[in-house]
Write a structure and sequence with these properties.
65% strand; globular; 0% helix; 13-stranded antiparallel β-sheet
């Protein structure tokens, strides 16, 4: 994914930051109309080191939106390359978002998930998701449609302005639906007119909503 041909010229001083059994809270800004609850973290352990011209970090915490949160990864400041692995146990989206009567409302659910990130600055990003998605409701005109998931595995990739979403397996319990395939947006010679490609296959369909 990365070009490792360039030699590093940045020399970071060696350092080590350790936090044991920390507690804190965070307020996230409103994003795309979604309002977040205050997030609480407890029993937080953080280890941040600078070594060999990179930052290495490891975080473990119990929080208000998940029973367990584990994040580890690397960051190379010279070329802005980064990688991360996140494991979330019993993730509760309804404890993160403020539920309202808008288009999207999370339902009470607890799911396990693992997310791998690989990227460079804001130009390149690869996200691998494996686990399950929280249940939610979408409002369709005056009707509310409930979505319940069994499991999900997909890859999202961004290279400059090109985007690609690869559904390896997206399995819903309600409505009963299994999806595989790709959704892609890319540019050719004309940077003002993107090309969209949709290639999806569905199995085990029952759309009686």
């Amino acid at each position: 994914f990365f070009d490792k041909s360039k030699n590093s010229s940045l020399n970071l001083p060696s350092a080590n930051l350790v936090i044991d059994d920390g507690n804190f809270k965070a307020n996230l800004p409103v994003f795309s109309g979604l309002k977040y609850q205050t997030l609480h973290f407890k029993n937080t352990n953080l280890n941040l080191r600078s070594i060999d011209n990179q930052f290495v970090y490891n975080l473990q915490s119990n929080c208000s939106f998940a029973d367990s949160l584990k994040i580890k990864g690397h960051f190379f400041p010279e070329n802005k390359e980064f990688s991360a692995n996140s494991k979330v146990g019993k993730f509760k989206l309804h404890n993160m978002l403020t539920i309202d009567e808008g288009l999207f409302s999370p339902l009470s659910s607890s799911v396990d998930m693992e997310i791998d990130l690989l990227g460079r600055g804001d130009k390149e990003l690869r996200v691998l998701f494996n686990g399950s998605l929280p249940d939610f409701i979408l409002k369709r005109l005056e009707e509310k449609v409930q979505f319940n998931f069994k499991n999900a595995k997909f890859v999202f990739e961004k290279k400059n302005n090109n985007l690609k979403l690869d559904f390896i397996d997206l399995n819903l319990a309600n409505p009963q639906l299994q999806i595989e395939g790709e959704i892609e947006r890319y540019y050719t010679s004309n940077p003002e007119e993107p090309i969209y490609r949709l290639d999806l296959q569905s199995h085990n369909i029952n759309l009686n909503l």
